Amino acid sequence: MGQLRRPDTTIAFQVRGLGPTVLMLQGVGARALVWAPQMDPLSDRWQCVAVDNRGLGDSGAAPGGLRIGQMVDDAIAVLDHLGIARAHVIGHSMGGILAHQLALDHPDRVASLGLLCTFTTGKEAVSLGPRSFALGLRAAIGTRRMRRLAFLRLIAPSSALQGDLDATAERHARVFGHDLADRHPISRGSGCESRVRDPTTALAPAGSHFAGSEMQD
Length: 217
Description:
Layout: E1 2-5, E2 10-16, E3 21-25, H1 36-42, E4 47-52, H2 68-82, E5 87-92, H3 94-105, E6 110-116, H4 122-126, H5 130-140, H6 144-155, H7 165-176, H8 185-188, E7 193-195, E8 209-211
Parallel strand pairs: 3-4, 3-5, 5-6
Antiparallel strand pairs: 1-2, 2-4, 7-8
Helix pairs in contact: 2-3, 5-6, 6-7
């Protein structure tokens, strides 16, 4: 785990493997460790770089809340610190928003762009079906075990919901950096709407809105 001092905080990052660089940007509330299942096989042929977004994991606090552009600048600062001119960039969920914005702001730094399970508008990010609404409610109220298991059912595929669910929740807690019964303050602000800076028709329709640029803790 490396550490990079920024003007207002410290950014933690992981580097594994040798070869062309893959920059991995994860969803809201998750730390870089969430990419371990991908880093393990890819690091044989690729240099994998994953960043703990400010306010999460081993990174420092996020003074004044979070902004998409701010987290993009952090990721670019990590690449600069490592002497990496260009990377394949992949992002999951909110990380897809970061990856998209990074490609718009720094096209010369992006060898390719992968957007995984992400969204284009704040409305898409926060819309809930009956199941998600019910699980979200149970993740917010009730006993700690009820909240923990409800959150686990929100984030894990059905194939992972077998056997000892308490042990499974504990494993996921190490990835998120906190007990799943406790909602991280960053997660509570993830539904705010934002606008991608200088959207282009090559990557998104002009005027596209993206969620999460203003997330207060």
